[in-house]
Amino acid sequence: MRRISLLFMIIICLFPIITYAASDQAGWEKLDQISDTALQLAKNERFEEAKEVLTYFSKEFLKLHAREQLKSADELRAITITHEGALKTLTASTLPTEERIDKVIQFRLVVDAIHSTHQPLWSEMKEPIMEAFQQLKQTVERGEQQAFETSLHQFLNQYEIIEPSVKIDVEPEWAKQVDIDLQRLQTPQFRQLSQDEQMKQLNDMEQHLQAVFDHVKKDEADSSLLWVMISTGSIIILTLTYVGWRKYRGEKEKNRTHEQE
């Protein structure tokens, strides 16, 4: 009986840890839903309402102590900058509608990148981004300089939407390589290269871009919660094993005593 009580005491001691981890997850689930609501309102061009929802997000972020749950300064920087950017563009009525929506999408993807444990939303933008890059390559193959500038602008706008999320979910060396590629594309030196050299560099860039989508560093489950589950399970198993061993040993001693009698 005493051993069973010990098992229950261990579970009770671990219960607050499990509850805290679950609470963190529920808090980010709420923030994720709020950011999605803001995006849906923006898509429907209800910008004032979207702005109110983003303001509400700030209040809930503080209320839920979400900052303490972030894994790095990069995550905090990404969520702060994209939130401010979304708010700023929503209030800028002179900006194109598409640009205002894109900023809210960028923020929404960052929240999801922090909250999600696998298949972040930004990774679903692989197809349009890779297509935009293919169009860029085609303008170089055809030697269309003006079309190249237009395609480059479109591609950069597409990648800019996912860039903050990429830096949360992808190993730094892959994200940094794409940054270097994008900077090179925009330099006068790139335009002065021969067509063959330009195509060679573009093919290398395409591989680097593909690698970003192939190296999303997301686990199948939240690492903190998984650690708690493993630890709890291990302790319970060890306790049950110990109880079983003591019981077996007691019965063996009992049988030995009977045999001696």
Automatic annotation (TrEMBL):
Keywords: Membrane, Transmembrane, Transmembrane helix. The chain crosses the membrane at residues 225-245. It holds the Pfam family Spore_YpjB. It comes from the Bacteria. NCBIfam families: spore_ypjB. This is Sporulation protein YpjB.
